[in-house]
Design a protein that fits this description.
The protein is mostly helical and about 290 residues long. The protein contains 14 helices and two strands. It is globular and about 75 Å long.
């Protein structure tokens, strides 16, 4: 009887399972169903097995989009992680200045993704945009709609501006969790600022930085709204990432079978890369502890 009372709390989890079933599992099963069938109508469909998967995997446009996606996510992480840590180190630790800086830094995170793209369209317009007009006023021809390189630079700036605050906030939380005794001991030993950061602050932040790295990789790898609004995947296909290419197949061409197979492959790629990153970070942490 006591065991039954102890397990009654599991009934509170049932609504969560129901919600997950409707929001994730059932749509996922629908996608799996579409990925193995050629659907001509509500009552007219043909089982094709792995045909759509073979077609998608042999598509060179998918390979190009994957390469662009990996390059974009890699560049974003290389910029945002060190920059976020630097901002966290420079933030005030106590008092009203600390609270004010936290609020100001978090403001970009409150803006919806599609609005971010609209803001940067206006901001970078060569005729009326503050940034675009300023760059052209200095004699540099700037128009991200006609230059692939400038489109990439604009997307990178937008992504870094939008999501670096997340890394900074997580890093700041990690710094605040370090006991003051560590810093007092480092001060007594005469440790430099760099030594304090490398041997005390950075190791103690490993947990939150791992979370930040995984979150930012997943989000940058799944990015859609911002580049779609800002560049539409152009000029040409220079900023057509995996998500934009998937939408073109599903909505533009209405090829539901290949789109479903593509989405499953897309999901698997994200999971594999996140798992690999996590294992690498975990092994690095174990190696440093044993040494």
């Amino acid at each position: 009887m006591d065991k039954w009372k102890d397990n009654k709390a599991w009934f509170l989890v049932i609504p969560v399972f129901i919600l997950v079933a409707f929001s994730a599992i059932i749509p996922l099963m629908t996608v799996v169903n579409y990925s193995v069938q050629d659907i001509f109508g509500p009552d007219n469909r043909l089982f094709v097995g792995t045909e759509w998967f073979k077609e998608v995997l042999s598509d060179t446009r998918l390979h190009d989009a994957l390469g662009r996606q990996l390059l974009f996510s890699g560049l974003v992480l290389l910029i945002e992680m060190p920059l976020g840590i630097l901002i966290a180190l420079m933030m005030p630790k106590k008092g009203w200045a600390s609270s004010l800086s936290l609020v100001l830094i978090a403001l970009p995170l409150l803006i919806p993704w599609n609005v971010i793209g609209t803001i940067w369209i206006i901001f970078t317009r060569p005729d009326i945009g503050l940034l675009g007009a300023a760059i052209n006023g200095m004699g540099v021809a700037f128009d991200h709609t006609n230059s692939a390189g400038q489109a990439w630079i604009t997307l990178m700036l937008m992504e870094v501006w939008h999501w670096t605050p997340l890394v900074a906030l997580l890093a700041f939380a990690g710094l605040r969790s370090i006991p003051e005794a560590y810093f007092q001991a480092a001060k007594i030993d005469g440790a430099s600022t760099w030594a304090t950061f490398w041997y005390i602050q950075l190791p103690k932040m490993r947990g939150v930085l791992t979370i930040a790295l995984l979150l930012r990789f997943m989000d940058s790898f799944l990015i859609y709204a911002e580049p779609f609004v800002l560049t539409g995947g152009g000029p040409g296909n220079s900023t057509t990432f995996l998500s934009i290419y998937l939408v073109k197949i599903a909505v533009g061409q209405f090829d539901l079978g290949p789109a479903a197979a593509f989405s499953l492959i897309y999901n698997l790629i994200v999971l594999l890369f996140c798992f690999s990153l996590y294992q690498v970070l975990l092994n690095v942490g174990k190696g440093e502890k044993t040494s």
